[in-house]
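Fill in residues.
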């Protein structure tokens, strides 16, 4: 496991020698230390990326040539997948099977953008002009130096969502992983180095967001900031980026609704509700944490949901059979418990779950179901980011849509019904960037990802993710000898 910083193709120790402990959230054991970059390292990484973009070969390679590097990185992830998955589970706490799936998806992301990189070759749009004395074309070029700041819930996968399209486009990048889950992101540097990536193209800085993250966002030589995380931090990044008119893309929080109509298959509804909120310990920005159930089905569904939630196996992510691991760190654990306590103070009832005391060490919260909360209660309005779901009944379709959209967030939404026309009608009414019909949470590299309202700006994944790292240039040529300028007429 790496304990240095990856800058300009080299592994270096931080100048001031600062480190951060790596804590296993299942055991609270400190099992490693990582380097903590500071302002000087941030400046060095930006300068390396700037030099690699302005004078290095990377932006000038063909898309096919860049694709070769991306495919080598994808294979490097696959070659080390079991090792990296165990590393991520110890770092984050999620069950090992989930880590393995995440790593496989990360490799697939690099392959996908390798294909799109090849499609960039020769991509020139001829523009039809009203004036035949000129011809014009539009070309797309790499944007420049990008900074990616990624969260702790999907450490390498979220990094891949940003690094892969940026490299495919021809940008150079500085990756800042979350300070609590940096291990696999640092190993991405090892894999990129083995793939022969030119120096300075990818730089990786572990450290505190308030120090190195802020220094990267503030740096005048950075052209683009891509951030996934909380709304308050996203707002600060947006304000800081405005000083230099940096391009930004923000994927922020959510409080996503799941509408279940009475004609739904109750067992499928229970299964998708649980997947929508208990996967990754509920630490998912798109988690469908507000469940609205049509009144005739409400009590029966609630009873089945509680019954099945109690069956979920809680344990160390490395143990076979574990379905729900610990929360990522002590701070997140305390925050989720505060939300649950606050919900009860505001009138909610805990149908099941809450603090889990099955282990002497670790940050454990059982699958939690809350009922009876007021519409203005914190539990219903605020993102909890843990295995906590709020469930309430509704009477009419119009009421369900209103309650679903009554949020400052708009990342995701789901609807379940046997009536396809109703599903399509509700899906169209949702004010959200991602909508699921008769399911919740399936995510595909080929499809756009991002939210409405305070859930963010821009889209990742698919061709939309590549667009984040490209600029469009108009080139117009005079092709006629006929005078045109006003003073020649």
């Amino acid at each position: 496991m790496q304990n240095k910083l990856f800058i300009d193709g080299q592994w270096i120790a931080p100048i001031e020698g600062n480190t951060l402990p790596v804590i296993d959230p299942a055991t609270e054991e400190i099992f490693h230390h990582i380097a903590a970059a500071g302002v000087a390292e941030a400046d060095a990484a930006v300068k390396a990326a700037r030099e690699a973009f302005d004078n290095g070969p990377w932006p000038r390679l063909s898309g096919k040539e860049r694709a070769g590097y991306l495919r080598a990185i994808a294979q490097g992830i696959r070659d080390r997948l079991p090792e990296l998955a165990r590393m991520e589970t110890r770092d984050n706490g999620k069950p090992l099977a989930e880590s393995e799936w995440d790593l496989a998806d990360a490799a697939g992301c690099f392959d996908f953008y390798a294909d799109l990189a090849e499609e960039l070759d020769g991509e020139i749009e001829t523009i039809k002009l009203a004036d035949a004395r000129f011809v014009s074309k539009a070309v797309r070029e790499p944007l420049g130096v990008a900074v990616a700041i990624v969260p702790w819930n999907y450490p390498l996968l979220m990094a891949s969502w940003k690094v892969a399209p940026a490299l495919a486009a021809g940008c150079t990048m500085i990756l800042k992983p979350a300070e609590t889950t940096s291990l696999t992101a640092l190993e991405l540097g090892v894999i990129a180095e083995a793939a022969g990536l030119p120096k300075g193209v990818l730089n990786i800085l572990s450290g505190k967001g308030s120090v190195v993250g802020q220094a990267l966002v503030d740096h005048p030589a950075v052209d683009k900031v891509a951030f996934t995380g909380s709304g308050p931090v996203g707002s600060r990044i947006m304000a800081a980026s405005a000083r230099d008119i940096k391009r930004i893309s923000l994927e922020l929080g959510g409080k996503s609704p799941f509408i279940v109509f009475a004609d739904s298959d109750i067992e499928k509804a229970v299964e998708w509700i649980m997947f929508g909120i208990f996967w990754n310990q509920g630490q998912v920005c798109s988690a469908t944490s507000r469940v609205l159930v049509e009144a005739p089905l409400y009590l029966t569904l609630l009873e089945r949901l509680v019954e099945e939630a109690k069956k979920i196996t809680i344990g160390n992510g490395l143990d076979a059979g574990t379905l729900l691991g610990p929360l990522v760190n002590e701070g997140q654990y305390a925050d989720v418990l505060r939300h649950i306590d606050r919900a009860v103070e505001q009138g909610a009832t805990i149908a099941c779950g809450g603090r889990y005391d099955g282990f002497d060490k670790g940050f454990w919260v059982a699958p939690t179901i809350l009922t009876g909360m007021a519409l203005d209660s914190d539990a219903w309005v605020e993102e909890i980011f843990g295995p906590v779901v709020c469930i309430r009944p509704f009477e009419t379709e119009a009421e369900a849509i209103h309650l679903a959209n009554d949020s400052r967030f708009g990342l995701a939404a789901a609807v379940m019904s046997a009536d396809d026309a109703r599903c399509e009608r509700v899906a169209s009414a949702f004010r959200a960037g991602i909508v699921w019909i008769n399911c919740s949470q399936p995510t595909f590299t080929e499809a756009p990802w991002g939210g409405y309202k305070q859930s963010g700006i821009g889209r990742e994944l698919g061709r939309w993710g590549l667009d984040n790292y490209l600029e469009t240039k108009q080139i117009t040529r005079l092709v006629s000898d006929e005078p045109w300028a006003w003073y020649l007429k």
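The mean pLDDT is 96.
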